[in-house]
Amino acid sequence: MATTDRSLSQAIAERRATPSFDGAPIPPEDLKRILDAGLHAPSGYNMQPWRFVVVQGQEQKRRLRAASYNQAKVEEASAVIVACGDADGWRKDLDLILQQGLEGGMPAGYADQARSSVPNYMGSFSSDQMKAWLNKQVMLAFTHMLLMAEVMGYDTAPMEGFEQEKVHEVLKLPLSYWVVALLGVGHLKGADKFDGGRLEMAHTVFGEEFGKPLK
Ligand SMILES: Cc1cc2nc3c(=O)[nH]c(=O)nc-3n(C[C@H](O)[C@H](O)[C@H](O)COP(=O)(O)O)c2cc1C
Asked: CA-CA distance, 194 to 180, in Å (whole number)?
């Protein structure tokens, strides 16, 4: 199905967590555009520790569904983007990232400093700290993809309802991978989800310090 861009404001206003998809395939060029939006996200030290496994095959979606508390939309979505973080990504990619940075105008002093500060910082993380750091980075790329898909006229379903070990097994993920979230992409089938509403801004936003209203 052809898609048409809508504005980001409109996509944000109209987006719902899609309850059910029609399963029609996504043209590869649309999928690439969605994925590319994620890869453009910012990350700490530009370390890009995200890794994505795109599941479109019916049999593999069925297995992924079984690893996701049997959520039907995992199998119904045209594509499920499994967003992971690689705890060893920084070790493998630091040189390449600094090289690319230097080619793009990164000051040599910054690169020299990063060569020691990145291993000092990330090498000291506990396993829990690494998972928290990966969650932060990966969800930003995930959100870029979700919004790009919505702007393009697709419907999306973010999901955290899955079992880490089972998803690892289905996707044959390396041990250093941490599965962060699943993003179902496709076209809505049937009625959309209700609008759960949002808390007032005064409830969740403060100005200058906690508890003070934003003027
Ligand atoms: C990180 C994340 C994980 C979620 N996991 C699930 C899930 O596993 N299954 C599900 O049905 N909905 C899931 N949701 C959808 C939320 O329930 C939904 O976004 C929320 O109720 C607000 O509704 P709205 O997105 O339509 O505004 C998830 C949303 C987010 C952001």
From this structure: 25
Residues with Cβ within 8 Å of residue 162, at least 6 apart in sequence: 64, 67, 68, 69, 179, 182
Pocket of ligand 1 (CB under 6 A): 16-17, 71, 158-161, 181, 193, 196
pLDDT tens readout for residues 14-54? 999 999 999 999 999 999 999 999 999 999 999 999 999 99
Is the pTM of the predicted complex or chain greater than 0.90? yes
Of 78, 49, 56, 67, nearest to 138 (Cα)?
Answer: 49
Q: Summarize pLDDT for 76-88 with one digit per residue, the tens.
A: 999 999 999 999 9
User: How many angstroms is it from 18 CA to the middle of ligand 1?
Assistant: 9
Domains and CATH numbers, the chain: 8-91+127-193 (3.40.109.10)
